[in-house]
């Protein structure tokens, strides 16, 4: 006869909840810094808004996907964060242009896909830069890019997502991701060329 005490269902649920919360805490510690950098670039340095967007994404992730694995959380979190960012951007456009409420709001001016863009491999963010270029200078250069280019570059280069996953997160085609990513790399090389004479925008 098994004389070991049986755990109650409430104890089991409590243990599962504790485990999920600990996983979320570890996950937040891993991605918060990078997510904030991404949002601060996208919101032109509005730290309060950036923190709100990231926190709301974590809350939504925990509320809807606490049963998913940690690996599944990464693309889910950035998908949620992207959606919240796009909602915020639409509200900002409508606030600045009240009549835009009555028409479709276009957030980006670089959504036209380039033909025959090579699906470039995902580099380390500074792999094509001289070591003399600091992280702050790279971040400043990223902030000068259009938002969708920022997202494509940071999701591919910083988070290491492939083109297909990045497209799912950004809710666009893989061709659009390739275009945004290609233009982002060209833009960064141009913005940082004055810091490194060996860099410079390559011709298309």
Automatic annotation (TrEMBL):
One of its GO terms (molecular function) is DNA-directed RNA polymerase activity. It is an enzyme of class 2 (transferase). Its EC number is 2.7.7.6. Keywords: Nucleotidyltransferase, Sigma factor, Transcription, Transcription regulation, Transferase. GO terms for biological process: DNA-templated transcription initiation. It comes from the Bacteria. The keyword Transmembrane helix does not apply. Pfam families: Sigma70_r4_2. Residues 136-185 form the RNA polymerase sigma factor 70 region 4 type domain. InterPro entries: RNA_pol_sigma-70-like, RNA_pol_sigma-70_dom, RNA_pol_sigma70_r4_t2, RNA_pol_sigma_r2, RNA_pol_sigma_r3/r4-like, WH-like_DNA-bd_sf. SUPFAM superfamilies: Sigma2 domain of RNA polymerase sigma factors, Sigma3 and sigma4 domains of RNA polymerase sigma factors. Belongs to the sigma-70 factor family. ECF subfamily. This is RNA polymerase sigma factor. The lineage of its organism: Bacteria, Pseudomonadati, Pseudomonadota, Gammaproteobacteria, Moraxellales.
């Amino acid at each position: 006869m098994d004389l070991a005490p049986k755990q109650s269902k409430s104890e089991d649920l409590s243990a599962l909840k504790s485990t999920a919360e600990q996983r979320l805490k570890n996950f937040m510690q891993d991605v918060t810094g990078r997510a904030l950098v991404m949002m601060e670039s996208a919101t032109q340095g509005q730290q309060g808004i950036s923190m709100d967007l990231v926190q709301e994404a974590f809350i939504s992730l925990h509320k809807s996907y606490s049963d998913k694995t940690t690996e599944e959380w990464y693309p889910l979190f950035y998908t949620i964060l992207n959606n919240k960012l796009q909602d915020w951007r639409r509200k900002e456009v409508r606030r600045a242009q009240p009549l835009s409420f009555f028409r479709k709001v276009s957030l980006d001016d670089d959504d036209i896909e380039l033909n025959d863009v090579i699906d470039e491999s995902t580099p380390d963010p500074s792999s094509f830069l001289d070591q003399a270029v600091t992280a702050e200078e790279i971040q400043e250069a990223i902030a000068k890019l259009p938002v969708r280019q920022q997202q494509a570059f940071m999701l591919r280069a910083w988070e290491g997502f492939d083109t297909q996953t990045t497209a799912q997160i950004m809710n666009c085609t893989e061709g659009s991701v390739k275009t945004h990513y290609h233009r982002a790399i060209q833009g960064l090389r141009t913005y940082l060329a004055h810091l490194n004479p060996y860099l410079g925008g390559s011709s298309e």
